[in-house]
Amino acid sequence: MVGDIAQQIEPKKEITASVGRSSENEIVTLFVTFPEDKPRIRVAFYSIIGKLIETSGVSTVTKGEYTFTFRTTGLPNGPYLVVLEAGDQRITKKVLISR
User: Fold this and answer.
1) What are the residue boundaries of the structural domains of the chain, listed by start?
2) Percent of the chain having pLDDT more than 90?
3) Going by CATH, does the domain composed of 15-97 fall within 2.60.40.3080?
């Protein structure tokens, strides 16, 4: 019978991320919470036109909270992107540097 079989679908666990700047605009920080272990993540900092400025490289994380920081000393004012790639998820955060 059709009504006898119930399938429980587990909700997808989403990564949460936010970005902040130091008061002097010299450091950009990405705050991330991983709801489960991720075998491969990469965090990168780009100019608004897509030029790679710095990357954390590829690493492994376990469930929990993490911070990734990028020094912006010497960069011109303007918009930048912080990109997190984790498994099949990609999160992009825009940050404005102004001094």
Assistant:
1) 15-97
2) 66
3) yes
